[in-house]
Write a structure and sequence with these properties.
By secondary structure, this protein is an alpha/beta fold. Among the domains are: about 70 residues, no CATH class; about 140 residues, HUPs (Rossmann fold), CATH 3.40.50.620; about 260 residues, Orthogonal Bundle (DNA Cyclobutane Dipyrimidine Photolyase, subunit A, domain 3); about 35 residues. The chain is about 45% helix and about 5% strand. It contains 31 helices and twelve strands. Strand 3, helix 9 and strand 4 form a beta-alpha-beta unit. Helix 23 runs antiparallel to helix 24. It comes from Oncorhynchus mykiss (Rainbow trout). Belongs to the DNA photolyase class-1 family. Keywords: Chromophore, FAD, Flavoprotein.
Length: about 800
């Protein structure tokens, strides 16, 4: 900013302050220019009174200026001033500092002090007037990038953070001009974060006070069919995440407004009614939100955008929830062969790249606030964390274990990510299936609620010292699930392969035992109890319990999906879901694949006993969640029915009482029956089996038909059918249903015994150490003997009662008491 040397200092200071407030100058530049205009001594005397009124409405800016002032004068650094004009000069070259201090103030100095006192009063009055006008007119906002002290930022790995452009810069929202635009509505949904949130940064760029708002409409969230998108545990997490987000917004000078439409008016369009009410109350003309990809929520958003645009309100839906917008993924150049696999999906993304991911965005350090906040309801009014009551009035705190197991804040997500990248990622590639060790990231709930962005996670993972391709591939699986949900909106409740709809089971007792963790198989029971108490289990254990439900209990996959999404009977007072990361797209896709109904068939079936060799070799996981079996030996803890009766008595285990009996006993017979059921339905629905390849045929959605109208598809009555991935054992079973054995049996048999491998590695290490120690001792003994022989000294006598090695023993490392074996030479 040019400053004329002939202007009055008061006018110059007022002009510089106005430039600072509108964002055309930063705090460091303002301080340097003040030193240039006022001089070193006058800045020390008058600067703090000049900025005092900023502490009321611009507290953070006042704090920054104060810290710059203190740092400057504590280190006595002289800035290079472009303009050296100062109202106070030295009286002469010959006067020493001591003489000047002894003289007392001159008449000129007294006049200067009176003058600068008036300047201070005028500038303070100007600040008060300008700040009042800014607050009353809801001034525009500009985004200013200012340098900040790196010690104030959260500690992260510098190797990852410094690779981003703009490192060391943060976004500040400050008033920009007296002509105030209307406020901006920042609509939070599943992006409950400030880090790397394009909608938040877009609200600052839109100009105007920002009003963060969260609207809770349960009917809109659920969607059609049996979606069960939000249950008790999910709602509890959402409640805690909203509380943390509200605190974070208040920390930067903003406020989160909670809204719940009237119950009598609740239904489709409730969000639209709430937004229209906010627009009328605040005068906002811009709404920003992060896009959601569930078909029913996307349809809701399209209605909202269309209606608000008719009301001359601009609505921007920003993409940030997935790495790739699922509605922009096409199969052009790849084809449909292998559709449903993550490899096919990644090929589609590579052949048809969208816009670049860009770099993660730092959070703003302030948000401009409106002069008057709209009316809202308290967070408790949303009813997300409502606990049931007993008849005597006491509360049932069913979420106590979930509350103690998780940190629900955005900082908690960052901490878990840092901890994983510093430790767990080194073992993830080979040991991610271990249930008894923290080798997984546990980040799925934070990703689901948007407290951690997928882009931030990918960026940090690629910047870590140890890259895990398997972990990065999980993000591709996540995007694949949402792509399939956009193609098949009925994915959560309708089987994609028509023949398998007929495979239904009605053994409700087995279902109840599976849900409550009382199947009699310790590994399955431990996983289901962990899910019940903490709302989470790792991916390997999800495969174990899903395989047991479908392949051994012969129950439909919808039962497992519904239980993972929402508990049907948590207690007799209310229902609550089990997974805190209950994601409709991911759960539906994985349960369909596990239930042999999805686009991709799992080519494996987890054995409920043998799988423990890989995931829980020492039984510590079972001991934690099934404490009634804690005393059993490692060899029997995963199969207590094979434990001798005497050992069961000593352990206090009574099968059928303290621990349940097995719901099914002959696992091989149950598995064989499952294969026969598959062969039966494939024969009954032969029109959905490709006669050439033996693969199942799946009806194509219109979107894929319009993208690819080439060959390889069978058209039956106007319906396009596509051959999809089919398990080899199903093809063999259909061709030869009476075969005694199936060479393509998918039950995993070659489990790696982690216990055996770790024991062998330990013995190898100890044996190697022992051999090295022995070789060193023998070498020292030979050196001593050679030395004594060279000096002509006699050999040392054997010490009585000292263990010696017996040369005649078969084991050369065995020892005997001293004196028993002696040398007679």
């Amino acid at each position: 900013m040019p400053v004329s040397g002939g202007e009055d200092p008061m006018s110059q200071v007022r002009q510089m302050l106005r430039e600072l407030l509108v964002g055309r100058e930063n705090a460091e530049g303002f301080f340097c220019l003040c030193v240039s205009v006022l001089g070193h001594n006058d800045t020390r005397t008058h600067f703090l009174p000049l900025i005092q009124l900023l502490a009321t409405d611009h507290n953070r800016l006042h704090t920054t200026l104060t810290s710059i002032y203190l740092e400057y004068f504590s280190k006595v650094r002289l800035f290079v001033c472009v303009y050296s004009t100062s109202p106070r000069r030295s009286s002469g070259h010959g006067s020493s500092p001591q003489t000047e201090s002894q003289r007392g103030p001159t008449q000129t100095q007294k006049q200067t002090d009176i003058k600068w006192s008036n300047v201070t009063q005028d500038v303070c009055a100007s600040i008060a007037t300008l700040t009042s006008n800014l607050n009353q007119t809801k001034d525009d906002v500009t985004v200013v990038e200012c340098k900040v002290d790196q010690s104030e930022k959260p500690k992260r790995s510098k190797n990852r953070r410094q690779r981003r452009k703009g490192y060391g810069q943060q976004v500040v929202g400050v008033p920009r001009c007296p002509s105030a635009p209307p406020p901006v509505l920042l609509w939070f949904r599943r992006d409950l974060r400030l880090h790397d949130n394009p909608a938040v940064i877009g609200s600052l760029e839109a100009g105007g006070p920002v009003i963060p708002v969260f609207i809770w409409c349960p009917e809109e969230e659920e969607g059609p069919g049996v979606t069960v998108a939000m249950g008790g545990a999910c709602k509890f997490w959402l409640h805690q995440a909203l509380s943390c987000l509200s605190s974070a917004l208040e920390h930067i000078g903003s406020h989160l407004v909670f809204l719940r439409p009237d119950e009598e008016r609740e239904g489709i369009g409730s969000s639209l009614l709430a937004l229209r009410s906010l627009v009328r109350e605040t005068g906002a003309q811009t709404v920003l939100a992060s896009a959601l990809y569930e078909p029913w929520l996307r349809e809701r958003d399209q209605v909202v955008v269309s209606a608000l645009q008719k009301d001359r309100v601009e609505v921007n839906m920003v993409h940030s929830y997935c790495l790739r917008d699922p509605y922009t993924v096409t199969t052009e150049g790849v084809g449909l062969r292998g559709i449903g696999s993550v490899s096919h999906f990644m090929s589609c993304c590579q052949m048809n790249p969208g816009p670049g991911l860009g770099v993660p965005l730092d959070p703003p350090i302030s948000l401009p606030s409106p002069s008057v906040w709209p009316r809202g309801c308290p967070l408790e009014g949303l009813g997300l964390a409502r606990m049931p009551c007993r008849k005597d009035g006491t509360t049932i705190d069913w979420a106590a274990n979930i509350r103690s197991s998780w940190d629900f804040s955005e900082e908690g997500a960052q901490s878990r990510l840092e901890a994983f990248l510093n430790d767990g990622v080194y073992r993830y590639e080979k040991e991610s299936g271990r249930a008894d060790a923290p080798n997984t990231s546990c980040l799925s709930p934070y990703l689901h609620f948007g407290q951690l962005s997928a882009r931030w996670l990918l960026w940090d993972t690629k910047g870590a010292r140890c890259r895990s391709p398997k972990f990065i591939r999980k993000l591709a699986w996540r995007d694949l699930a949402y792509w399939q949900l956009t193609l098949f909106p009925d994915l959560p409740w309708e089987s994609l392969r028509p023949p398998y709809k007929a495979r239904t089971g009605n053994e409700r007792g087995h279902l109840k035992a599976w849900q409550k963790g009382r199947t009699g198989y310790p590994l399955v029971d431990a996983a289901m109890r962990q899910l019940w108490l903490t709302g989470w289990m790792n991916n390997y254990m999800r495969h174990v319990v899903a395989s047991f439900l479908i392949a051994y209990l012969h129950l439909p996959w919808q039962e497992g999906y519904r239980w993972f999404q929402v508990r049907l009977t948590r207690c007799r007072f209310q229902g609550a879901d089990t997974l805190v990361d209950a994601d409709v797209a991911i759960d539906a896709m994985m349960w369909q694949n596990g239930g042999m109904c999805g686009l991709d068939h799992w080519n494996f079936v987890m054995h409920p006993v043998d799988a423990a060799m890989t995931c829980d070799p020492y039984g510590s996981y079972v001991r934690k969640w099934c404490p009634e079996l804690a005393v059993l030996h490692d060899d029997h803890i995963h199969k207590p029915w094979k434990c001798p009766a005497s050992m069961l008595r000593r352990a206090g285990v009574v099968l059928g009482q303290s621990y349940p009996e097995r719901v099914v006993t002959d696992l091989e017979e149950r598995r064989s029956q499952s294969l026969q059921d598959v062969a039966l339905v494939r024969r009954r629905f032969g029109q959905y089996v490709d006669p050439c390849s033996g693969c199942d045929l799946v009806p194509l959605p219109p979107r894929l038909v319009s993208e690819a109208m080439g060959g390889g598809m069978v058209n039956t009555g106007g319906q396009f059918l596509l051959p999809v991935i089919t398990r080899m054992e199903f093809k063999h079973q259909s061709d030869d249903p009476d075969a005694a054995s199936n060479p393509y049996n998918a039950v995993l048999k070659g489990y790696v015994s982690r216990r055996r491998n770790e024991t062998i590695a330990f013995l190898n290490q100890t044996d190697f150490t022992a051999s090295v120690i022995n070789e060193g001792a023998e070498r020292r003994e030979r050196q001593e003997q050679d030395q004594r022989r060279m000096e002509g000294l006699p050999r040392p006598l054997a010490v009585e009662r000292r263990g010696k090695r017996t040369p005649a023993a078969k084991d050369r490392f065995s020892t005997v008491p001293g004196g028993v074996a002696t040398s007679h030479r």
